[in-house]
Amino acid sequence: MSRLVVLGAGESGAGAAVLAKKKGFDVFVSDMSPIKEKYKNLLIQHQIEWEEGQHTEDLILNANEVVKSPGIPNNAPIIEKLKALNTPIISEIEFAGRYTNAKMICITGSNGKTTTTSLIYHIFKAAGYNVGLAGNIGQSLALQVAETEHDYYVIELSSFQLDNMYDFRANIAILMNITPDHLDRYDYKMQNYVDAKFRIIQNQQEEDAFIFWNDDPIIQQELKKYGIKARLCPFAEVKENGVIAYTEDDKVYINEPIAFNMEQEELALTGKHNLYNSLAAGISANLAGIKNEVIREGLKTFKGVEHRLEKVAKVGGVQYINDSKATNVNSCWYALQSMTTPTVLILGGKDKGNDYNEIKDLVKDKCVGLVYMGLHNEKLHDFFDGMGLPVKDVQSMKDAVAACYEMAKPGETVLLSPCCASFDLFKSYEDRGEQFKACVRAL
């Protein structure tokens, strides 16, 4: 019996373990952190051996193959030891892909992938398709393959997941954009990060499709390196050579494979970045044969994604917006660009090698105050303090919201768009966003 070890017992790891057990593997799950009760119960229910708070090498290094959680760095000691033994290390998505013939619609990019993934899923569900939502959002792909097989899966993929994918094939691959992010995991080398993102097109065939933002300079440069077999489906804000989706005269157009258009003002999502998300989603649905009227209705009725430019409340004439999902500078750029009133910006957290020059002009133009929220705010002080804006240092969400309450005047906006990962003060960006909403509602 082949031995499969799963490292990390979160959503992806627990799901991979259940699928492996069902496929007859000798399965063992190991997590250096405490395992959440719901995942413990899942493992116990399926009679899967597990450990928490440690990695017992004797039980791990004898694996024939390892499924690694995307959160575990490639240079973690246990990973280095497995590499020395030439043990294959794969992602949960790679493992699950072996056991399904479903069509895979896969989305990656530095920004916009969660919204685009959710929007595509929304349209496919509205069309009555048997579709699952997986990857960074939704339920584990492996668990769905094990228990509730679908005809389509819409999968959000991070660069970390793509790193450990080899034979997996995306029938529709979507690359929204590439800007610096997670460079701390890629030896601070941008090309390493770019290479990870482009793994989304590996194994694609002529009948597949590659959807991408045509005006991204990095994507354009990288396209020249690959002999891409898949059908190219570029989109852009305006009509230009080769693009199949664009806007013109306040309308959204998709020209292939079936002509589609709708009024831009009817789109549920507003802002330039959301226009791109809508175009990518519309192309995907069009390629999948979904009727125009269903695509149009889906693009009109989508509710948006929690923690992404989410309006929380208006207090004392001040609008509070939760953009906790902005874990990199480019994502914050999009948020600031969409602000139409003077803004108090909360930023800070675990810096991933950020270059704040990208938002420098927007901060000057849009912001009336800055709140630095993190354990190490020196880099923020060095970069922003010279702008002459009021600034405040805080180390909790309660203090951050209190500082904003003091700073912001009626008619202004408080924007949580941190540019950074959350792990210095919070469990996750979701935790950070939930705390922000709770503190705002308690004002």
Q: What's the layout of helices and strands?
A:
Layout: E1 3-7, H1 11-22, E2 26-31, H2 37-45, E3 49-52, H3 57-60, E4 65-68, H4 77-84, E5 89-90, H5 92-97, E6 103-108, H6 113-126, E7 131-135, H7 141-147, E8 152-156, H8 159-163, E9 172-175, H9 190-197, E10 209-213, H10 217-223, E11 231-238, E12 245-248, E13 251-254, E14 260-263, H11 272-287, H12 292-301, E15 310-315, E16 318-322, H13 329-337, E17 343-347, H14 357-366, E18 367-373, H15 378-384, E19 391-394, H16 397-407, E20 413-416, H17 429-441
Parallel strand pairs: 1-2, 1-4, 2-3, 4-5, 6-8, 6-9, 7-8, 9-10, 10-11, 11-12, 16-20, 17-18, 17-20, 18-19
Antiparallel strand pairs: 12-13, 13-14, 15-16
Write up this protein.
With 443 residues, the protein is α/β, with parallel strands linked by helices. The chain has 17 helices and 20 strands. A 9-stranded mixed β-sheet has the order 7-8-6-9-10-11-12-13-14, covered by helices on one side. A 6-stranded mixed β-sheet has the order 15-16-20-17-18-19. Strands 3-2-1-4-5 form a 5-stranded parallel β-sheet. Helix 1 packs parallel to helix 7, helix 6 packs across helix 11 and helix 13 runs parallel beside helix 14. It is globular, with a radius of gyration of 22 Å. 51% of the residues are buried.
Distance between the termini: 59 Å
Class by SSE composition: alpha/beta
Number of domains: 3
Mean pLDDT comes to 94
CATH-level-4 superfamily name of the largest domain: Mur-like, catalytic domain
Largest sheet: 9 strands, mixed
